[in-house]
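Suppose a colleague, Dr. K., hands you the sequence of a protein chain of 509 amino acids and asks what its three-dimensional shape might be. Before reaching for any lab equipment, you can write down a predicted structure in token form. Begin with the sequence itself:
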Amino acid sequence: MKVMGVGGGAREHALAEAIARSSHEARIYWVSELRNPGIYRLVKNSGGEYALASTKDAKKVAELAVKWNVDMVVIGPEEPNFHGVPDEVEKAGIPCIGAKRSVSIIEMSKAEMRRLQWKYNIPGKLLFKTYRSYVEALDDLKRFSETLTWLQNVALKPARQAGGKGVKVVEDLQAYLHAEKQEFKERHIKWLEEYMAKYGDVGERILVEEKVWGPEYTLQCFVDGHTVIGMPLVQDNKHAYEFDIGPETGGMGSYTGRGRLLPFITEEEYERSLDIVKAMVYAVQKVAGEKYRGFIAGQMMLTEVEGPTLIEMYSRLGDPEGVNVLALLKSDIIDIFEAIIDERLAKLKIEFSDEASVVKAIAPKGYPDFRHLAKGHPVHVDGKLIEKVGCKLFWGSVNLKEDGSMVTGGSRMVEILALGDSPPQASRKVNECLSLNPVRLLDGWGVFYRLDIGSSEMISRRTRIAEKVRRLYKYREERGILGKRIDWLPKVGKINPVDLLLKELGGVE
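The predicted structure, expressed as tokens, is then:
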């Protein structure tokens, strides 16, 4: 069997590794912008081929799939989905594990995702407004931010998936800081408009959502157009530095608990989250008139207003979250891919290890805000040392050059994984590995990582927050007011902002 993969990060290395351990003894073919050292080694060991090309070039990827005469193509990152790579590959007669463009809109446009959720009245909703320009958004902020509470405390986001960049949460509660907070909102909205100018595939540029609080978690799933199978929950840590401070990144590390739950999420909350993801899949399929086949994920938050709440959707596995679940996967991944292609996931028993897992990323300084400074540094990694202490190495944004040297690509360089009886135990194992300095840059440029991910202290913190949130949303649920909001307008009185939003959206089905 010949399997071709698309994408060059640590998530894709984990996918290639899962394919390599399949009983089908697949010959592996791959395409990415940079030559990932880990994937390259697996490709060569299998007798396959590796090509450097744009993973957003649908025709080029399809041409390579035809040239290599592969049996299936597997998409790693989101941008190939957005650019119609699965569509072009399947037009060439080759099955593809990846969301076609029409259904990947669920991730590409955060505005469309939120509208879809409200249209079909899917639980876990947030109030939102979208704007095509800075001027439109500024007008609303000036008119309503002093009266409508949810427009005071907001999350400001790019309206398109933008690689995890651009999200700012503003809590505007103190009257003496209101002018400064308002000024910050205006500056960031202006920045969002400018940043989004490079994306011509969506009309709306700015998304404003109500601010909510609670612990976040990711539910990743396999889907075949009919059946959605959930994987173990993963907790991602996006902030660059310890104790959740610093700029947001694509993810500095993640962990799973024992079994399919996290220490701070209940079985009931897992099932509610899975129901939300399933409903979103069925809704986007209905609107697009296209079956969804591949991976899907819900980035969730446990909130006092809605309980399990949808923050974003992914049309692929997360990174680093995908590394966690693929390391725990006991079932043969090619068997799963074939079941997705044949639309028979419901008949397949998919098993995961009961161990806990922790992943920690190592990034060059400059990432995430000044990636040009993080590029081009010579890399040295002692893979044998990493294995010696019981960890696994997954290569990320590193380019293996023709002469055998390796340089940074500007993002997270590598991800190191450990398994254990608990997240803290696995976390300590990764930290032991990191203390031996197995990853460094030969020109002396600095690297950074987080030691606290999966630690007892961070899990206890998440658990305390979850318990508080759970008491609040359960209280609301018992009184029949879960998901309800009330606001107050001067000279008008009590209003329901949900009704205003529904009126703006033209009602729901």
